[in-house]
Design brief:
The protein is α/β, with parallel strands linked by helices. The chain folds into 2 domains: 98-357, Type I PLP-dependent aspartate aminotransferase-like (Major domain) (Aspartate Aminotransferase, domain 2, 3-Layer(aba) Sandwich); 361-480, Alpha-Beta Complex (Aspartate Aminotransferase, domain 1), CATH 3.90.1150. Helix content is 43%, strand content 13%. The chain contains 15 helices and 12 strands. The chain has helices at 11-31, 41-49, 60-72, 93-105, 117-133, 147-161, 181-188, 209-221, 244-254, 291-294, 326-329, 348-357, 359-382, 410-427, 454-480, and strands at residues 83-84, 140-144, 170-175, 196-199, 225-232, 257-262, 286-290, 302-306, 387-389, 397-402, 431-437, 440-446. The chain has a 7-stranded mixed sheet with strand order 2-8-7-6-5-3-4, with helices on both faces. It has a 5-stranded mixed sheet with strand order 1-11-12-10-9. Helix 7 (181-188) links the parallel strand 3 (170-175) and strand 4 (196-199). Helix 8 (209-221) packs parallel to helix 9 (244-254). It is globular, with a radius of gyration of 24 Å. The structure holds pyridoxal-5'-phosphate (PLP). Pyridoxal-5'-phosphate binds next to helix 6. The site of pyridoxal-5'-phosphate (PLP) has 15 residues, from helix 6.
């Protein structure tokens, strides 16, 4: 069994085994002609259920053969140009190399004595991101597992900085279309059920600052405490960017912590054409960035950044066995002092390899390409009488709904759109997402793949229309019979 341990004596086995796996995946990627096979839960479950985990195969080739059946064949492939659903990007090769290195060396970024150079690399990437944001020299931050955790940590710091001991009095302001992790964080932080105040959005799905000002005033008048305003720079559904400068102004007026959730919009930090969309982000107290959304990084890769490094002390605990207080005076950099996690992956390495290979402009160019594509897609949708499209994109999502000429019942149109999404998924020809707008069912493209073309978008719209028409035809038949 020791031959499976990765060490000095097994380096050759490691090389062979990993190469075998890489070759399988490479062959798979090269021959995947659809983003999904359309397999159902019922069809796939038995092949996994029948595997006896107490009966190992003892052979890499056999394990990989089995993996083909239980995972690789039917996985959802984000690199395929017709995967258009959620905020999953195709990944860049330097980052995948980073992933291979980081799992083999297996540093843990909690303490210097489990990581050494990894710690310094992470810190340099945090500094680099802070410079891109426009924060000053007192800024800091830490890598996290994802946007939800980054938002949670930011709001934890905001709660600790708030000027009250009464959690019941604290209020967080976020737009109607902000990410649900804001509400989840409020719950985890022990705030009351009314803690998150939803601020309405304008026709472009951006927070209405007049409404925010009104809510902040109301909060003050009621003797409550405005703990934080969460401005979203790239909403999940619409990619809309809240008016950051105006929100910053209101935050300073009302003494509220300004958090910018740029989980999606962070790609603009390296954009060559659209960086100004983030103007005002430098006035935030904290920022969430998800490199695994718009920097073409594998899951997981995220960070929470803060303008004032001292606020990270709210996440600091010292343990004698790990990061005793004396290490602070000895200036030993223990990232656990800033993190909600203890043992933590060296995710930063992926971004490091990416920047050292492609450079920031290379990533920015790819992100600009998907935003350009979204503009093209919007024109297609806006000019297509079969579809209603919600907002002109600031980033790279398109929310739209098939509107058949002959049908006026909105509930029937809902059903046709829901059916079309399901049927498309089952066909595996393309994967799109869905959401609700004004209580009605819409479909969504999240465009994060520079390989997707306007022709792909047009073809998928035709497929959707075909499925929706089929549903409506069958539904008419059902009524007639
Ligand atoms: C705006 C926004 N914030 C936060 C998140 C949560 O990020 P994660 O899925 O990495 O936890 C998302 C996810 O889609 C998001 O769109």
């Amino acid at each position: 069994m020791r031959s499976h341990l990765l060490n000095d004596t097994t380096a050759e086995r490691y090389r062979r085994t990993v190469t075998e796996g890489v070759e399988r995946v490479a062959a798979k990627l090269a021959t995947t002609d659809r983003p999904f096979t359309g397999v159902t839960v019922d069809a796939l479950s038995p092949s996994i259920e029948r595997i006896d985990l107490d009966k190992p195969l003892h052979d890499t080739a056999a394990v990989l053969d089995e993996l083909e059946d239980v995972y690789l064949r039917d996985a959802i492939y984000f690199h395929h140009p017709r995967y258009l659903a959620h905020l999953n990007c195709p990944v860049v090769i330097p980052a995948v190399l980073g992933e291979a290195v980081l799992s083999a060396v297996n540093s843990s970024l909690d303490t210097w004595d489990q990581s050494a150079g990894g710690t310094l690399i992470e810190r340099k990437l945090i500094d680099w991101t802070n410079e891109r944001i426009g924060f000053g020299p007192s800024a800091d931050g830490v890598f996290t597992s994802g946007g939800s955790q980054s938002n949670l940590q930011a709001l934890l710091l905001a709660r600790e900085e708030a000027k009250t001991d009464s959690a019941a009095k604290l209020r967080i302001f976020a737009s109607d279309v902000s990410h649900f992790s804001v509400k989840k964080s409020a719950k985890l932080l022990g705030l009351g059920p009314d803690a998150v105040v939803s601020v309405p959005v304008d026709g472009n799905k951006r927070m209405q600052t007049v409404a925010l000002a009104r809510e902040l005033e109301r909060c003050e008048n009621e003797g409550l405490v405005p703990m934080a305003v969460v401005a979203t720079a790239g909403t999940t559904d619409f990619g809309s960017i809240d008016p950051l400068p105006e929100i910053a102004e209101l935050c300073s007026q009302f003494g509220a912590w300004m958090h910018v959730d740029a989980a999606y919009g962070c790609g603009l930090l390296v954009s060559l054409k659209r960086r100004e969309l983030l103007d005002g982000i430098e006035r935030a107290d904290s920022v969430t960035v998800d490199y695994h959304k718009s920097f073409f990084q594998p899951v997981s890769s995220s960070a929470v950044l803060v303008r004032d490094e001292s606020t990270l002390r709210h996440a600091t605990y010292h343990a004698e066995y790990l990061n005793p207080r004396r290490m602070v005076t000895e200036r030993i950099p223990n990232q656990v002092d800033k993190s909600l996690q203890t043992t933590r992956r060296f995710d930063a390495l992926k971004l490091w390899m990416t920047l050292r290979t492609m450079g920031a402009d290379g990533i920015g160019q790819l992100f600009d390409e998907v935003c350009d594509l979204a503009e093209e897609g919007w024109k297609l949708l806006a000019g297509d009488p079969r579809y209603d499209v919600v907002v002109e994109p600031q980033l790279s999502t398109l929310v739209y709904r098939y509107i058949p000429e002959a049908v006026t019942d909105p509930a029937e149109i809902d059903r046709a759109n829901l059916y079309a999404r399901k049927a498309l998924f089952a066909s595996g020809d393309a994967v799109v997402a869905g959401t609700k707008v004004g209580g009605r069912h819409y479909l969504k493209f999240t465009l994060l793949n520079p390989e997707t073309t306007a022709d792909d978008i047009a073809a998928v719209l035709d497929l959707i229309a075909g499925h929706a028409e089929q549903y409506l035809g069958e539904s008419l038949d059902r009524i007639a019979s």
